[in-house]
Write a structure and sequence with these properties.
Urease, subunit C, domain 1; TIM Barrel; binds zinc ion
Length: about 425
């Protein structure tokens, strides 16, 4: 009898495999963190012997969601500054507050962010922030999968005296996480408007030297584009292309403003994944990224929440719902961005952004990163089409179990790796004045 560490049984399993198979009364066997078998319960039950066998009952298991752009520690600033334009919001509210950040605060509030993500079905995230070593420490405490890098600015920050220091931290992180399967490093220049050509070129050099992907905010608002045109005589996307940034695997957050020429540059590069953050873009009134056109042009697209200061939730179910509704409204076409496409962005698209082909679907050989929703929740009854429910009916609060590499991290309201009540007590001690 074949052995496995964990055997899960569920009413339904949505695999996101190439056929987008939906299995009824199904089971999933896990060994050493990876899926070793998946199929009808009658074929696995009694065949696989597990140290831990669980019948989760009336649940839908799906691949863990991938939050492809966030700043987890910004939970510190949730509700701190709302209803402002992007550049005023950043320059007058966020940057001054971030000047007083400490590694301890970043670790504490990153852990809070990861708690919110795990409780709403997210198993991986792509983060950039200050004191990123503290973000990695929080990820290790929570058990979540993290791809991230120290944010690189042209100016001094609370974490770094200069951009060279930020790149040195990135290099140290790459070395210290080399043996950690859940932790990956990305070189993370903040944006075009907070760096310069020398910094961006140095980021590219480091990414090439260490064979790491890049992650940056790009073409987020019309103001950013106007500023770039004035300073560099071209759009932010053309500017990045001219510096060679699009030749390396690169995750581009927002890309709200994208001309036909920009689109052709992204298409020609074939290395970029667009990280769509509809909640943040709507809240800051930055505009709507041309996601349907990008997809029609064969660009890779993923979905992210951005930070809690501009969303204000780190909940991928909410983000999927926003993406589906926003683009129907913009296109005046209810067939735009159907639920299956949006779910693909939150799973397989995220895996692409992270450069992790062994994530994003539940198939033999892939990591057992998954989540389970209680199908008896009133808003999920009846269940004709699970994908429709995930995008249009679920809130994320139906999640009963979340697992990364076969390890249960969230189980019916309880975090298994850390004491959530103790975390809340620590957070209550931190006073934030406006
Ligand atoms: Zn961001």
């Amino acid at each position: 009898m074949p052995q496995c560490t964990t055997l899960l049984h569920a009413k339904k399993i949505l695999t996101q495999d190439p056929r987008r198979s939906l299995l009824e009364d199904a089971s999933l066997a896990i060994s050493k963190g990876r899926i070793v078998a998946i199929g009808p319960r009658c074929e696995l039950s009694g065949v696989w012997q597990a140290a831990d066998e669980r019948d989760l009952g009336n649940v839908l298991i799906l691949p863990g969601l991938i939050n492809a752009h966030t700043h987890a520690a910004m939970t510190l600033l949730r509700g701190f500054a709302d209803d402002l334009p992007l550049l005023d919001w950043l320059n007058q509210k966020i940057f001054p507050r971030e000047a007083a950040l400490t590694p301890e605060l970043v670790e504490l509030f990153s852990l809070l962010g990861f708690a919110e993500m795990l409780a709403t079905g997210t198993t991986s995230c792509l983060d950039m922030y200050l004191f990123e070593k503290a973000v990695f420490a929080a990820a290790k405490r929570a058990g979540i999968r993290l791809s991230a890098g120290e944010v690189v600015f042209a100016f001094a920050s609370a974490a770094c005296a200069n951009w060279q220091e930020a790149l040195a931290i990135t290099e140290e992180l790459a070395e210290s996480t080399a043996c950690e399967s859940r932790l990956e490093v990305m070189v993370s220049p903040h944006s075009v408007y907070t760096t310069n050509p020398q910094i961006l070129t140095s980021c590219l050099d480091l990414a090439q030297k260490l064979d790491l992907p890049l992650h940056l905010h790009l073409s987020e608002s019309p103001q950013e584009v106007a500023q770039c045109q004035k300073m560099h005589g071209q759009s932010p996307i053309a500017y990045c292309a001219s510096l060679g940034l699009l030749t390396q695997p690169v995750a581009l957050a927002h890309v709200v403003v994208c001309s036909e020429h920009d689109l052709s540059l992204l298409k020609a590069a074939r290395q970029a994944t667009i990280l769509h953050c509809p909640g943040s873009n709507m809240k800051l009134a930055s505009g709507a990224a041309r996601i349907p056109q990008m997809q029609q042009n064969g660009l890779f697209t993923a979905l992210g929440t951005d930070g809690a200061a501009s969303n204000n939730q780190l909940n991928m179910f909410l983000e999927m719902n926003r993406a589906a509704l926003l683009h129907k409204l913009i296109a005046n076409d209810p067939e735009t961005l159907p639920a299956g496409t949006v779910l693909d962005m939150a799973t397989l698209g995220g895996a692409r952004a992270l450069q992790k082909p062994d994530l994003g679907s539940l198939e033999v050989g892939k990591w057992a990163d998954l989540t389970a929703l209680d199908l008896s929740a009133p808003n999920l009854v009846p269940c004709y089409a699970p994908i429709s429910h995930l995008v249009y009916a679920a809130t994320g609060h139906e999640v009963v179990l979340t697992m990364v590499e076969g390890e249960i991290l969230y189980d019916h309201g309880r975090f298994t790796r850390f004491d959530y009540e103790a975390l809340c007590r620590e957070i209550a001690k931190v006073t934030v004045t406006s």
